Amino acid sequence: MPSPLYRSFDYLPVDSVSAETSSSITVPAQRGIGPARDSQPGTRVLVPFGNRKVVGIVTGVSNQSALSEDRLKSVLAVLDPGPVFTAAIYQVLLWAASYYQHPIGEVMATALPARLRSASDWRPQENLWKVVEGISVQELDSLKRAARQQALLEFIDKKGEVSRDQWLAAGFSQPLVSQLQKKNLIVKYSSPVAGKATAAGFDPIPRNPKLSLQLNIEQRHAVEKITAGLNKFSCYLLDGVTGSGKTEVYMRVMQEQLAAGKQCLVLVPEIGLTPQSVARFRQRFSCPVVALHSGLNDRERVNAWDQARRGHAGIIIGTRSAVFTPMHKPGLIIIDEEHDPSFKQQDGFRYSARDLAVVRAREENVCIILGSATPSLESLQNARSNKFIHLRLTERAGEARPSVMEIIDIASAPLDNGFSEQLLYKIQKHTAAKNQVLVFINRRGFAPVLNCQNCGWVAECENCLTQFTVHAKPPSIRCHHCGSSRQLPRYCPSCKSRSLATFGIGTQKIEGFLIKKFPGIPVLRIDRDSTRGRNSLANLLNQVEKGDPCILLGTQMLAKGHHFPNITLVAIVDADAGLFSADFRGQEHMAQTIIQVAGRAGRAERAGEVIIQSRHSTHITLQTLVRASYTEFAELLFAERQESGMPPFAHLCLLRAEAIEANEAISYLKKVAALAKSLCAEHALAVTCLGPLPAPMEKRAGRYRIQLLLNSKNRGAMQSLLKRLTPAMSALKHSRKLRWSIDVDPQDLI
Ligand code: ADP
Ligand code: ZN
Ligand code: ZN
């Protein structure tokens, strides 16, 4: 496991030799055969696979196999007492493998913590104490003078074995325990926690009820609406402007479910970026809150997973893959910032955690809330068609007022490192008033272009055919697509001239510029390069939270839900990149980023100002966003997408082939296209097939990227085609060097 194959394999049960009725267990790319009791679907088994032993998962039990019994191998061991997936998650995984056309073995592997992909014992251990054998507690004289020790010994003796939590709860202390251990009266040993019965649940009392705010009318309406239908499957789109108090709504609903002893799963785009939200839940609720994020090691991850599975954790908060975290008593699923592209996995098993969460909520029969200030068009469309219940929060909560947005036309303005005089003046004004300023530039590094002023040569990554980005530390040029990097050239490789110059701006260049321009004001740069260290982002965010005047400079990372009450000015240095994006979602993403970044301003009593610099200040997209709202902007996009027959009015699937030789990929996809067309004709499926065409990003990491785009108004027709096409695609002959992939509901077509 994981096997990349679209099939499963049959095995005989462990003790099949003596079994009277031999049946077969199927393990994905592994199907299994086995004694029904310990071979429920979802149980892990150790099986021989080629000349290796691998972990497989039982997907079914059958009395027949395509192979004759003497050719079937036996399962070597059943690894867990029962299935590792809950029934609901198991169903979600089957659904996902089928919907995303992905091998079930890999789908299941994605859903399990790494520790469960190997056969070693993964179960968290806990320390237990018991009385040393042969000691008769009642007849013991040596403790006559030590009443507490005697009491502890009797306590342990009565219980048989006790955990730290138990002796602490009974009022005993560590020194007492150590004393008994030293006297060799008790021993400490460790034992797997999961072997025991499910934990009793968690304390449902809010830690800090005083932290609950008085809800405003819109919030109250939202909470009432959701809590009225809590214990059945229903989807809510909580469409609330930035700072409208969506989190408060989530917490009220969570409180209801926690009080009923049920667990809540909260998915967020990138947890490392929002340590604040985890802290908020921990402050508010006394139940255990587990956070699943990329900073955990395998041991910590499996522990968190297990706590959720046993019902010990009340709140599970995590990123994309946390959608697979099992819950003993599921009560609620929340997707915060549901529009965020990071919910879609971009390689391998290309699932959307948001969409799978809805499927999961249906399987678990619980309610799900999708929250955002800038909902995706998909979710807005679901609200329009009443699949989701649309709840709006149109005003900022508490004292905060909406920010004033202004576009500065820079088409003919003289710029200093990308900044207009007007913008520099504003930054000066806000920092002088002891406020914080956020400067947004969606480009990390020093500058996006290095070129020769003598002959026009441009530094390009030959693996990707895109421009190298210039980086300052260390002086280098780097490709942001394949990660390759070189030393910064001193002279032009083409004409040997020394007149190399950088063009455009990146965060590193602006950092230097702002430090010089505003001496005495700290400039905090937040981008992927400055936050690589384990705590570097947290440290930077802490500094912002202190509230002293500073300029916060950064990329996308700043758009993600942070709450900085002292920011009063947000500057978007260049809004134009997204306006003319090659991708059909380009404008949607640009608008979401602008609104989200702008939403960082004026989140407390102090009013906020947002400045957007653009060379196309009259562009209808920008104007609608600034003068009207995201909702009206979305209406514009709906019209456009409907006309062009793009999502959410159509369903897409991107079939891509990558190869060193472009022709190899093209000829493979030509065959696929012919297959697709004949399948459509044969089964009367209304799916159009466009291509093969080079991807907008034609080459990446040395491989040419060619694609075929399937488009259908009817999801059923698309699925029906894919079910037939995928097996045919994997059966098509091609060289080992060609890679192909299927992306159902692609996030972009780049
Ligand atoms: P969102 O997630 O919608 O952007 P938050 O939930 O982060 O907004 O809330 C923004 C701020 O408003 C927070 O400081 C929060 O404590 C505050 N807030 C939320 N609801 C209320 C309320 N009903 N009264 C006063 N302040 C509130
Ligand atoms: Zn040159
Ligand atoms: Zn590259």
Helix and strand layout, with pairings?
Layout: E1 8-11, E2 24-28, E3 32-33, E4 44-49, E5 52-57, E6 60-62, E7 77-78, H1 87-99, H2 104-111, E8 125-131, H3 147-159, E9 162-163, H4 164-169, H5 174-182, E10 186-192, H6 217-228, E11 234-240, H7 246-259, E12 263-267, H8 275-284, E13 289-292, H9 298-309, E14 315-318, E15 330-336, H10 353-364, E16 367-372, H11 377-384, E17 389-393, E18 404-409, H12 421-432, E19 436-440, E20 449-452, E21 460-461, E22 466-467, E23 469-471, E24 476-478, E25 485-487, E26 500-503, H13 507-517, E27 523-526, H14 536-546, E28 551-554, E29 567-572, H15 586-598, E30 609-614, H16 620-627, H17 630-644, E31 651-659, H18 662-683, E32 688-700, E33 703-712, H19 715-731, E34 739-744
Parallel strand pairs: 11-16, 11-17, 12-14, 12-15, 13-14, 15-16, 18-30, 19-28, 19-29, 27-28, 29-30
Antiparallel strand pairs: 1-2, 2-3, 4-5, 4-7, 8-9, 8-10, 20-26, 21-22, 23-24, 24-25, 31-33, 31-34, 32-33
Bound molecules: adenosine-5'-diphosphate and zinc ion (2 copies).
The oligomerization state is single chain
Average pLDDT reading: 86
Bound ligand species: adenosine-5'-diphosphate, zinc ion
Measured distance between first and last alpha carbons: 31 Å
Q: What does the largest sheet look like?
A: 7 strands, parallel
Low-confidence stretches: 16-24, 29-37, 195-199
Radius of gyration: 30 Å
Domain module count: 5
Strand runs, count:
34
SS-based class: alpha/beta
Q: Using the alpha-carbon principal axes, give the shape.
A: globular
CATH architecture descriptor text of the largest domain: 3-Layer(aba) Sandwich
Q: Which percent range describes the beta-strand content?
A: 15-25%
Q: What is the percent of helical residues?
A: 25-40%
CATH topology grouping of the largest domain: Rossmann fold
Strands of the widest sheet, in order across it, are 13-14-12-15-16-11-17
Number of helices: 19
Can you tell me the CATH superfamily of the largest domain? P-loop containing nucleotide triphosphate hydrolases
CATH class division of the largest domain: Alpha Beta
